[in-house]
Design a protein that fits this description.
Helix content: 25-40%
Strand order of the largest sheet: 1-2
Number of helices: 3
Largest sheet: 2 strands, antiparallel
Shape: rod-shaped
Strand content: 5-15%
Order of helices and strands: HHEEHEE
Low-confidence stretches: 149-154
Structural class: alpha+beta
Number of strands: 4
């Protein structure tokens, strides 16, 4: 009786190990292989937004550098961009006569960069970008002072 019972257990064990054919189309798909995300092609949208940011930054830099710096009193400093943890990514100097044109572009760039950072789930060192204490003119260029010099710009 023991032999029959052992033979039956052995037969059932071996027969249950038989490989079953599974249709690969019915297996779960790796999400990384999906060509599109739920809200359209997120990667393409983010690449396009990155290009817009580069273009807008080029425009801002062009406006900021469109005049020679001869008198630091005629220049202003503005925060520019957004770090993933918050706060400005950098600062930029611009001539006060360009203010009406450049400030809306700086604000747009900062907002777009903050949105881009959020959508990309970016992170940074969260270090605070030190605000320049002023600026000076060197060889026709506005140079930001970050060492605590006495030159102050309103």
């Amino acid at each position: 009786m023991k032999k029959v019972l052992l033979l039956m257990i052995g037969f059932l064990t071996l027969s249950s190990c038989k490989t079953k054919h599974v249709d690969p189309e019915k297996l779960p798909k790796d999400i990384a292989l999906k060509p599109e995300r739920e809200n359209g092609n997120l990667e393409q949208e983010l690449a396009l937004e990155a290009e817009r940011l580069r273009s807008l930054r080029t425009t801002i830099d062009s406006l900021a550098n469109s005049r020679n710096c001869t008198d630091a009193e005629e220049w202003r400093i503005s925060p520019l961009g957004s770090k993933p943890c918050g706060g400005p990514a950098s600062y930029i100097a611009y001539h006060k006569e360009n203010e009406e044109e450049i400030i809306p572009k700086i604000q747009e760039f900062t907002k777009r960069q903050a949105d881009y950072n959020r959508k990309r789930n970016l992170f940074s060192d969260c270090a605070i970008e030190p605000q320049p204490s002023g600026l000076r003119c060197e060889s026709g260029k506005a140079v930001l002072i970050k060492d605590g010099s006495s030159l102050q710009i309103d």
